[in-house]
UniProtKB/TrEMBL annotation:
Protein's recorded name: Putative aldo/keto reductase
Keyword NADP set for record: yes
Keyword Oxidoreductase: yes
Gene Ontology MF: a single term: oxidoreductase activity, acting on the CH-OH group of donors, NAD or NADP as acceptor
Domain NADP-dependent oxidoreductase: residue ranges: 77-316
Matches recorded under InterPro entries: AKR, NAD(P)_OxRdtase_dom_sf, NADP_OxRdtase_dom
Family per similarity comment: Belongs to the aldo/keto reductase family.
Sorted UniProt keywords: NADP, Oxidoreductase
Organism: Kineosphaera limosa NBRC 100340
Region (Disordered): 25-56
């Protein structure tokens, strides 16, 4: 029997996207135990939060049930720690309800501080963090999660990702078993990976019988990863894009992207993020600039035409801005 965390139907090995509102989460989704929240400091002093659009959500396979993850999230990777708390608070005020953190940049304390001071209830926020690549191995992964949990000030998180396969270490399967244990013990709601290629994913499935709920990879119109996304679809793995804007480089100046943006009176970044959503990809754009973070969220009130989606698809050139899975260390 499949137990739904949210209302829409779930089918085995199929990922669905549907409209979601924070009220749905508050009504239907249990948050972390009260003991995980700690003493609450003064709340965010900003008096108003943005009115909430109905956001699309991806359903994640989580063992015996499904977990809903907002399709558009906010990433804090490489945001300086001294700016990260306010950047996260601004994202929450804007309407983002998925926050993607990592221990790599020492940002977890700032994210945790934002979660404790925001007036957004914790059970409306989907929190992700990651096991660093120097913490592979069963016991090391369990210890890494405990350290992240302490830095975040959260007894539980919604999604835990293994940050890369590090194939030269040959320990990512052991790490995966540890992440599954944390899920089964209720410390995390869903288990996933980052930067895994098909062979890495297949090995996890072959050796443990479970596919990750999410594979977070670099993905954008210059790098569409059609084979990997097809593998994800076959095995019920959600695709989540880091660097969804190709790190703000040439892609946002590409004549095709610029022309489509003009047709919709939108920014190039909004067009690319809309492309992600219409493909069913989850995406975690990052910007420490409040105006850009707000613009990136304003993508739920327009749609690209099929021809425009196809034109963006045709930009694929296999262009990586980060490390390939086989070389991720």
């Amino acid at each position: 029997m499949v137990r739904l965390m949210f209302a829409p139907p779930w089918r085995s090995h199929k990922l669905s996207v549907f409209a979601w509102h924070p009220a749905d989460a508050a009504a239907q989704t249990p948050g972390p135990p009260a003991s995980s929240r700690g003493a609450r400091p003064a709340r965010d002093a900003t008096p108003e939060r943005a009115a909430q659009p109905r956001q699309p959500v991806t359903l994640l396979s989580a063992g015996t049930h499904a977990v809903a993850m907002p399709q558009l999230g906010y990433g804090v990777h490489q945001i300086p720690a001294h700016r990260c708390r306010e950047a996260t608070l601004h994202a929450l005020r804007t309407g983002y309800r998925a926050i993607d953190s990592t221990s790599v940049d020492d940002n977890e304390p700032a994210v945790g501080a934002a979660l404790r001071t925001t007036d957004v209830p914790r059970n409306e926020i989907f929190l992700t963090t990651k096991v660093c690549n120097d913490r592979h191995g069963y016991d090391q992964t369990l210890a890494a999660f405990e350290a992240s949990s302490k830095r975040l000030g959260q007894g539980a998180v919604d999604l835990l990702l293994i940050h890369g396969p590090c194939p030269q270490q040959e320990r990512y399967v052991d790490s995966w078993r540890a992440v599954l244990r944390l899920r089964d013990e209720g410390r995390i709601r869903a288990a996933g990976v980052t930067n895994f290629g098909i062979r890495h994913l297949q090995r996890l499935i072959d050796e443990t019988g479970e596919a990750p709920a999410v594979n977070q990879v670099e993905l954008h119109p210059y790098l569409t990863r059609t084979q990997l996304r097809a593998f994800h679809a076959e095995h019920g793995i959600a695709t989540q894009a880091w660097g969804p804007l190709a790190r703000g480089g040439r892609l946002l100046r590409d004549p095709v992207v610029v022309a489509i943006a003009r047709e919709h009176a939108r920014t190039p970044a909004q067009v690319v993020l809309r492309w992600h959503l219409q493909h069913g990809n989850a995406a975690i754009p990052k910007s420490a600039d409040p105006a850009r973070a707000t613009q990136n969220f304003a993508i739920f009130d327009f749609e690209l035409t099929p021809d425009q989606v196809a034109a963006l698809d045709a930009l694929d050139r296999g262009e990586l801005t980060g490390a390939a899975p086989a070389t991720t260390t």
